[in-house]
Design brief:
The protein is built from eight helices and 13 strands. With 302 residues, the chain is an alpha/beta fold.
Protein backbone atom coordinates (compact mmCIF):
# COMPACT_ATOMS: atom_id res chain seq x y z
CA UNK A 1 0.00 0.00 0.00
CA UNK A 2 1.19 3.51 -0.74
CA UNK A 3 0.12 6.84 0.68
CA UNK A 4 -0.03 9.67 -1.79
CA UNK A 5 1.35 13.04 -0.78
CA UNK A 6 -0.91 16.05 -1.12
CA UNK A 7 -4.30 16.76 0.42
CA UNK A 8 -6.48 14.23 -1.34
CA UNK A 9 -9.11 11.52 -1.05
CA UNK A 10 -9.02 7.78 -1.73
CA UNK A 11 -8.39 7.37 -5.43
CA UNK A 12 -11.41 6.68 -7.61
CA UNK A 13 -11.83 6.85 -11.39
CA UNK A 14 -11.43 10.42 -12.60
CA UNK A 15 -9.94 11.65 -9.33
CA UNK A 16 -6.51 12.68 -10.57
CA UNK A 17 -5.02 16.11 -10.92
CA UNK A 18 -2.28 16.29 -13.55
CA UNK A 19 0.88 18.18 -12.71
CA UNK A 20 1.89 20.88 -15.20
CA UNK A 21 5.45 22.15 -15.03
CA UNK A 22 4.57 25.77 -15.80
CA UNK A 23 2.02 25.77 -13.00
CA UNK A 24 4.38 24.22 -10.47
CA UNK A 25 6.82 27.09 -10.91
CA UNK A 26 4.72 28.87 -8.28
CA UNK A 27 7.04 29.79 -5.43
CA UNK A 28 4.77 29.28 -2.41
CA UNK A 29 4.00 25.96 -0.78
CA UNK A 30 0.45 24.83 -0.25
CA UNK A 31 0.99 25.18 3.50
CA UNK A 32 2.04 28.82 3.11
CA UNK A 33 -1.08 29.55 1.07
CA UNK A 34 -3.32 27.95 3.69
CA UNK A 35 -1.73 29.97 6.51
CA UNK A 36 -1.88 33.22 4.54
CA UNK A 37 -5.64 32.87 4.34
CA UNK A 38 -5.96 31.77 7.97
CA UNK A 39 -3.52 33.95 9.95
CA UNK A 40 -5.21 33.15 13.26
CA UNK A 41 -4.12 29.53 12.82
CA UNK A 42 -0.46 30.60 12.97
CA UNK A 43 -0.88 32.13 16.42
CA UNK A 44 -2.89 29.13 17.60
CA UNK A 45 -0.23 26.62 16.54
CA UNK A 46 2.71 28.65 17.82
CA UNK A 47 1.06 28.94 21.24
CA UNK A 48 0.80 25.16 21.62
CA UNK A 49 3.46 23.59 23.84
CA UNK A 50 3.54 20.43 21.72
CA UNK A 51 4.49 22.42 18.63
CA UNK A 52 7.12 24.44 20.49
CA UNK A 53 8.67 21.19 21.73
CA UNK A 54 8.52 19.56 18.29
CA UNK A 55 10.18 22.54 16.63
CA UNK A 56 12.90 22.71 19.27
CA UNK A 57 13.80 19.04 18.90
CA UNK A 58 13.93 18.80 15.10
CA UNK A 59 17.26 18.94 13.30
CA UNK A 60 17.77 21.67 10.72
CA UNK A 61 19.85 21.90 7.56
CA UNK A 62 20.86 24.75 5.25
CA UNK A 63 20.12 24.15 1.54
CA UNK A 64 20.97 26.88 -0.99
CA UNK A 65 20.96 29.53 1.74
CA UNK A 66 17.53 28.43 2.97
CA UNK A 67 17.06 26.72 6.34
CA UNK A 68 14.74 23.69 6.59
CA UNK A 69 13.59 21.24 9.24
CA UNK A 70 14.21 17.50 8.82
CA UNK A 71 10.84 15.86 9.45
CA UNK A 72 10.19 12.09 9.67
CA UNK A 73 13.95 11.65 9.19
CA UNK A 74 14.04 12.23 5.43
CA UNK A 75 11.56 14.99 4.61
CA UNK A 76 12.63 18.58 4.03
CA UNK A 77 10.03 21.06 5.31
CA UNK A 78 9.89 24.78 5.99
CA UNK A 79 8.21 26.43 8.98
CA UNK A 80 4.79 26.68 7.31
CA UNK A 81 4.82 23.04 6.21
CA UNK A 82 5.85 21.94 9.69
CA UNK A 83 2.93 23.86 11.20
CA UNK A 84 0.42 22.26 8.84
CA UNK A 85 1.86 18.75 9.35
CA UNK A 86 1.68 19.23 13.10
CA UNK A 87 -1.92 20.46 13.04
CA UNK A 88 -3.13 17.69 10.76
CA UNK A 89 -1.43 14.93 12.72
CA UNK A 90 -2.64 16.26 16.06
CA UNK A 91 -6.22 16.48 14.88
CA UNK A 92 -6.16 13.52 12.48
CA UNK A 93 -7.62 15.66 9.74
CA UNK A 94 -6.75 17.50 6.56
CA UNK A 95 -7.09 21.23 6.08
CA UNK A 96 -8.86 21.32 2.72
CA UNK A 97 -11.73 23.27 4.27
CA UNK A 98 -9.33 26.06 5.24
CA UNK A 99 -8.07 26.83 1.76
CA UNK A 100 -10.23 28.50 -0.88
CA UNK A 101 -8.23 28.98 -4.10
CA UNK A 102 -8.35 32.47 -5.64
CA UNK A 103 -9.92 33.04 -9.02
CA UNK A 104 -6.63 32.66 -10.90
CA UNK A 105 -6.79 29.76 -13.33
CA UNK A 106 -3.14 29.06 -12.54
CA UNK A 107 -3.80 28.25 -8.90
CA UNK A 108 -7.05 26.46 -9.62
CA UNK A 109 -5.13 24.10 -11.85
CA UNK A 110 -2.38 23.68 -9.29
CA UNK A 111 -4.54 22.83 -6.28
CA UNK A 112 -7.69 20.73 -6.18
CA UNK A 113 -8.39 18.78 -3.02
CA UNK A 114 -10.86 16.52 -4.78
CA UNK A 115 -8.17 15.16 -7.05
CA UNK A 116 -4.80 13.51 -6.63
CA UNK A 117 -1.79 15.43 -7.90
CA UNK A 118 0.48 13.31 -10.10
CA UNK A 119 2.94 13.82 -12.91
CA UNK A 120 1.36 14.38 -16.30
CA UNK A 121 0.93 11.22 -18.44
CA UNK A 122 3.69 10.91 -20.99
CA UNK A 123 6.04 13.22 -19.08
CA UNK A 124 9.56 11.78 -18.93
CA UNK A 125 11.10 12.50 -15.52
CA UNK A 126 14.52 13.69 -16.60
CA UNK A 127 17.37 14.09 -14.13
CA UNK A 128 21.11 14.65 -13.96
CA UNK A 129 23.66 13.52 -11.37
CA UNK A 130 25.85 16.55 -10.70
CA UNK A 131 29.35 15.11 -10.76
CA UNK A 132 31.11 18.14 -9.26
CA UNK A 133 28.96 18.01 -6.11
CA UNK A 134 30.35 14.65 -4.98
CA UNK A 135 33.61 14.14 -3.11
CA UNK A 136 35.07 11.66 -5.57
CA UNK A 137 34.58 10.00 -8.93
CA UNK A 138 33.79 6.80 -7.06
CA UNK A 139 30.97 8.42 -5.05
CA UNK A 140 29.52 9.89 -8.24
CA UNK A 141 29.53 6.48 -9.95
CA UNK A 142 27.90 4.81 -6.93
CA UNK A 143 25.03 7.32 -6.95
CA UNK A 144 24.72 7.19 -10.73
CA UNK A 145 24.36 3.40 -10.72
CA UNK A 146 22.00 3.34 -7.73
CA UNK A 147 19.78 5.93 -9.44
CA UNK A 148 19.72 3.81 -12.61
CA UNK A 149 18.59 0.75 -10.68
CA UNK A 150 16.08 2.64 -8.53
CA UNK A 151 14.42 4.34 -11.51
CA UNK A 152 14.20 0.99 -13.29
CA UNK A 153 12.58 -0.54 -10.19
CA UNK A 154 9.71 1.98 -10.38
CA UNK A 155 9.47 1.70 -14.17
CA UNK A 156 9.05 -2.07 -13.77
CA UNK A 157 5.94 -1.72 -11.60
CA UNK A 158 4.03 1.32 -12.85
CA UNK A 159 3.58 3.66 -15.80
CA UNK A 160 6.40 6.14 -15.20
CA UNK A 161 9.50 6.88 -17.23
CA UNK A 162 12.77 8.33 -15.92
CA UNK A 163 15.69 9.44 -18.06
CA UNK A 164 19.24 10.26 -16.98
CA UNK A 165 20.43 13.20 -19.10
CA UNK A 166 24.07 12.34 -18.61
CA UNK A 167 25.46 15.18 -20.72
CA UNK A 168 24.22 17.57 -18.02
CA UNK A 169 26.20 15.85 -15.24
CA UNK A 170 29.22 18.11 -15.73
CA UNK A 171 27.20 21.31 -15.41
CA UNK A 172 26.57 23.40 -12.31
CA UNK A 173 23.05 23.44 -10.94
CA UNK A 174 22.27 26.97 -12.14
CA UNK A 175 23.18 26.12 -15.73
CA UNK A 176 21.20 22.89 -16.07
CA UNK A 177 19.08 22.47 -19.19
CA UNK A 178 16.48 19.89 -20.08
CA UNK A 179 16.18 18.18 -16.70
CA UNK A 180 13.31 18.24 -14.23
CA UNK A 181 15.46 17.60 -11.19
CA UNK A 182 19.15 17.29 -10.30
CA UNK A 183 20.70 14.68 -8.02
CA UNK A 184 23.46 16.35 -6.04
CA UNK A 185 25.88 15.61 -3.25
CA UNK A 186 25.77 17.63 -0.07
CA UNK A 187 27.41 17.62 3.35
CA UNK A 188 24.58 17.46 5.86
CA UNK A 189 27.05 16.30 8.53
CA UNK A 190 25.11 13.07 8.91
CA UNK A 191 21.72 14.68 9.55
CA UNK A 192 20.27 12.66 6.66
CA UNK A 193 21.41 10.12 4.08
CA UNK A 194 19.17 11.16 1.19
CA UNK A 195 16.26 13.56 0.71
CA UNK A 196 13.87 14.11 -2.18
CA UNK A 197 10.81 16.22 -2.91
CA UNK A 198 7.11 15.86 -3.64
CA UNK A 199 5.66 16.84 -7.02
CA UNK A 200 3.26 19.21 -5.26
CA UNK A 201 6.11 21.29 -3.82
CA UNK A 202 7.42 24.44 -5.56
CA UNK A 203 9.81 23.89 -8.44
CA UNK A 204 12.80 25.31 -6.56
CA UNK A 205 12.51 22.34 -4.18
CA UNK A 206 12.79 19.76 -6.96
CA UNK A 207 16.13 18.21 -5.98
CA UNK A 208 17.35 14.83 -4.78
CA UNK A 209 20.00 15.47 -2.12
CA UNK A 210 22.60 12.82 -1.32
CA UNK A 211 24.73 13.18 1.81
CA UNK A 212 28.46 12.46 1.56
CA UNK A 213 27.86 9.46 3.87
CA UNK A 214 25.72 7.70 1.22
CA UNK A 215 28.50 5.54 -0.21
CA UNK A 216 29.34 4.16 3.25
CA UNK A 217 25.78 3.93 4.61
CA UNK A 218 24.91 0.77 6.52
CA UNK A 219 21.62 0.76 4.61
CA UNK A 220 21.33 -0.66 1.13
CA UNK A 221 21.99 2.13 -1.36
CA UNK A 222 19.45 0.90 -3.89
CA UNK A 223 16.84 0.73 -1.13
CA UNK A 224 17.53 4.32 -0.10
CA UNK A 225 17.07 5.73 -3.60
CA UNK A 226 14.05 3.54 -4.42
CA UNK A 227 12.48 4.94 -1.26
CA UNK A 228 13.27 8.60 -2.00
CA UNK A 229 12.08 8.25 -5.61
CA UNK A 230 8.79 7.06 -4.15
CA UNK A 231 8.56 10.55 -2.64
CA UNK A 232 9.34 12.05 -6.07
CA UNK A 233 6.34 10.14 -7.42
CA UNK A 234 4.21 11.56 -4.60
CA UNK A 235 4.16 8.71 -2.05
CA UNK A 236 4.50 9.24 1.69
CA UNK A 237 5.86 6.97 4.39
CA UNK A 238 3.81 3.86 5.02
CA UNK A 239 3.64 4.59 8.73
CA UNK A 240 2.02 7.92 7.84
CA UNK A 241 -1.33 6.14 7.78
CA UNK A 242 -1.39 6.36 11.57
CA UNK A 243 -1.06 10.15 11.30
CA UNK A 244 -3.04 11.44 8.36
CA UNK A 245 -0.60 14.25 7.70
CA UNK A 246 -0.81 15.38 4.07
CA UNK A 247 -1.68 11.98 2.66
CA UNK A 248 -4.48 9.47 2.27
CA UNK A 249 -4.59 5.87 1.06
CA UNK A 250 -4.36 5.37 -2.67
CA UNK A 251 -5.94 1.91 -2.91
CA UNK A 252 -9.57 2.11 -1.81
CA UNK A 253 -9.94 -1.65 -1.44
CA UNK A 254 -7.07 -2.10 1.01
CA UNK A 255 -6.61 1.39 2.40
CA UNK A 256 -6.83 0.20 6.02
CA UNK A 257 -4.07 -2.36 5.62
CA UNK A 258 -0.69 -1.50 7.09
CA UNK A 259 2.10 -2.86 4.91
CA UNK A 260 5.29 -3.51 6.90
CA UNK A 261 7.02 -4.66 3.70
CA UNK A 262 6.43 -1.41 1.84
CA UNK A 263 9.39 0.33 0.23
CA UNK A 264 7.97 3.46 1.86
CA UNK A 265 8.18 1.88 5.32
CA UNK A 266 11.20 3.77 6.54
CA UNK A 267 14.16 2.30 8.42
CA UNK A 268 13.55 1.60 12.07
CA UNK A 269 9.76 1.53 11.61
CA UNK A 270 9.16 -2.23 11.47
CA UNK A 271 11.21 -2.23 8.30
CA UNK A 272 14.55 -3.77 7.43
CA UNK A 273 17.82 -2.49 6.06
CA UNK A 274 16.73 -3.64 2.59
CA UNK A 275 13.60 -1.97 1.21
CA UNK A 276 11.89 -3.34 -1.90
CA UNK A 277 8.74 -2.46 -3.80
CA UNK A 278 6.15 -4.90 -2.45
CA UNK A 279 3.08 -6.32 -4.15
CA UNK A 280 0.83 -3.85 -2.31
CA UNK A 281 3.20 -1.06 -3.37
CA UNK A 282 2.85 -2.19 -6.98
CA UNK A 283 -0.95 -2.16 -6.78
CA UNK A 284 -0.96 1.26 -5.11
CA UNK A 285 1.44 2.75 -7.66
CA UNK A 286 -0.57 1.32 -10.55
CA UNK A 287 -3.77 2.82 -9.15
CA UNK A 288 -2.13 6.22 -9.69
CA UNK A 289 0.19 5.74 -12.68
CA UNK A 290 -1.20 2.64 -14.40
CA UNK A 291 0.75 -0.50 -15.35
CA UNK A 292 4.38 -0.48 -16.41
CA UNK A 293 4.98 1.02 -19.85
CA UNK A 294 7.31 -1.90 -20.51
CA UNK A 295 4.25 -4.12 -20.91
CA UNK A 296 3.10 -2.29 -24.05
CA UNK A 297 4.12 -2.23 -27.69
CA UNK A 298 3.19 1.34 -28.67
CA UNK A 299 1.97 2.08 -32.20
CA UNK A 300 2.63 5.51 -33.74
CA UNK A 301 0.04 7.04 -36.06
CA UNK A 302 2.70 8.54 -38.34
Amino acid sequence: MLLLFGLCFVAKPGQFKLLKLAIMGYSKTLSAQILERNPSLIATIESMNEFVELEANLKMVMIDEEEYYIYEDDLLVDKEELMIYFWEQKHQTILSNLYKPPSSNELKNLINYNKIVRWKPGLVLTYSVLKNTFQSESDYKIVKEAMKQATEAWEDVCGVKFEHVEEQDERKIKSLKGVIFPVRGINSKGIFTALAFYPSQPKNRWKVLIDYSFSSSRYDQLSILTHVLGHVLGFRHEYGRDNVGNGMMVDAENHKMYNPKSVMNFKGRLGTQVLEISELDRRGAQSVYGPSLKKFDFIDAD
